[in-house]
Specification:
about 450 residues; alpha/beta; Aspartate Aminotransferase, domain 2; seven-stranded mixed beta sheet; 13 helices; about 35% helix; binds pyridoxal-5'-phosphate; pyridoxal phosphate
């Protein structure tokens, strides 16, 4: 074996080297073009090589790229925090800047715990989440993730936080008829709260639309209203993990806007800087921060690169670009076009069990039998084969776990909001060919 030094996701796999990106395409050093139908890991929301972002980066880098957050603040960081508060539901958020989605959710957890500590209620420290969930790879974030395969190796190090039933109507985890279930999955939150005792629970965290752990699973209407009502009644903070859904991805700036929900805390990442620099944020409402402001005044989290001016300037330029190009609306409109095309395509493929999603976050779930919804045997690893086949055809799609405990096969299609309808047609054509070849 050739001596190598870079640890790649799969150590023995050959990954092509990308030379450059433009729009919705990436080009490798052999000249092969890849249609980026997943925006990488649902990240490059405005596409690759956008000149306005490169200009903003250069301008900020020529002033200052880094200042240490314990010594200085900066104009871009201050402005970004104000901008996010203006955009977020309810407009009264503080921002804590970090570098990845995992850091954002873990900071959300820490702020929630500290909130209760400074209110004199230190026993409220557990964070509930759902069985189908992924909130990040660090140990705190994994402790509140239901994603079995990503947790498995580290279970002895993880907090044993309880998991709640997900709102997954395609295969109801409560085995109920979704048209007459009375929101049983939302009510499961209350059942778990009563079992554990709300005096031990700081927060409940949920992705507005389940991403990697489900493949763009959209909850039924009324679900989040019920969740918020339960959280309020039991004095539990609600954390919206908008790392994947935030910043225009679902056709609204924040995913929770679809249900008129104002989360107590919001985690952002991925699309915030659209992949141009590492950047993520934890937003906390005034009332969440108040006990800390009146108490220790020190939010106990933070990283060396937190709130660095370069990444903040990039995120501001991304938000400007989204506004100037009207990309929130584009994500909504093109999402309709994409889902209609995927639905039409699914008619010709027996193995597509479900087409779902919102805006430009679309999901497909695959089944061995469409009537019974029986999943493929795990040994077949259909998702892996499909992702590889699509890759060889120059199409990038994002693998997801399907099924309540990750036993199924699903993919996410989440192209940049700048994709044209012709490019969507090409995407669906290549995807259809790849599905045929693995069926
Ligand atoms: N939360 C959600 C909903 C995610 O989808 C992800 C990543 O896929 C994360 C958190 C973790 O983000 P990161 O990989 O940037 O640490």
């Amino acid at each position: 074996m050739k001596r190598e030094h870079l640890i790649k996701p799969l150590l023995n796999h050959h990954y092509p080297k990308i030379s450059f990106g433009k729009g919705v395409f990436l080009y490798d050093d052999q000249g092969k073009a890849y249609l980026d139908a997943s925006s990488g890991a649902v990240t490059a929301g405005i596409g690759h090589g956008v000149q306005e972002i490169i200009d903003a980066m250069q301008e900020q880098a020529s002033k200052v790229s880094f200042v240490y957050r314990s010594q200085f603040t900066s104009e871009p960081a201050e402005e970004l925090a104000k901008r996010l508060s203006d955009l977020a539901p309810g407009n009264d958020y503080w921002s804590f800047f970090v570098n990845s989605g995992s850091e954002a959710t873990e900071t959300a957890m820490k702020i929630a715990i500290q909130h209760w500590q400074e209110k004199g209620r230190p026993s409220k420290y557990k964070v509930l989440s759902r069985r189908m969930s992924y909130h990040g790879i660090t140990l705190g974030a994994l402790s509140m993730s239901g994603h079995f395969t990503r947790r498995r190796r580290f279970v002895p190090l993880l907090e044993d936080f309880p998991l709640v039933a997900p709102p997954y109507c395609y295969r109801c985890p409560m085995k109920l008829d979704p048209t007459a279930c009375g929101q049983s999955c939302a009510n499961d939150l209350e059942t778990v709260i009563k079992r554990i005792g709300s005096e031990h629970i700081a927060a409940f965290i949920a992705e507005p639309i389940i991403g990697a752990a489900g493949g763009a699973v959209v909850p039924p209407d009324g679900y989040y209203e019920r969740i918020m009502e339960i959280c309020k009644r039991h004095e539990i903070l609600f954390i919206a993990d908008e790392v994947m859904t935030g910043i225009a991805r679902t056709g609204t700036m924040f995913g929770m806007e679809h249900w008129g929900v104002q989360p107590d805390i919001i985690a952002l990442g991925k699309g915030l800087s659209a992949g141009y620099t590492p950047m993520a944020a934890t937003l906390a409402k005034d009332h969440v921060l108040e006990p800390i402001l009146n108490g220790s005044k020190l939010v106990m989290s933070g990283h060396t690169y937190s709130a660095n001016p370069l990444s903040a300037a990039v995120a501001l330029a991304v938000l400007d670009y989204i506004e100037d190009q009207q990309l929130v609306k584009a994500a909504e409109d093109k999402g309709h076009y994409l889902r209609a095309a995927l639905t039409k395509m699914s008619e010709g493929h027996e193995i597509i069990g479900d087409v779902r999603g919102k805006g430009l976050l679309a999901g497909l779930e695959f089944v061995a039998d469409r009537q019974t919804k029986e999943p493929f045997p795990a040994s077949k690893s259909l998702t892996t084969k499909l992702v590889e086949r699509a890759f060889s055809k120059g199409l990038l799609i994002y693998p997801a776990a399907g099924g309540v405990d990750g036993e199924g096969d699903a993919i996410i299609i989440a192209p940049p909001f700048t994709i044209s309808t012709e490019e969507i047609d090409l995407l669906v054509e290549r995807l259809s060919e790849a599905i045929t070849e693995v069926s």
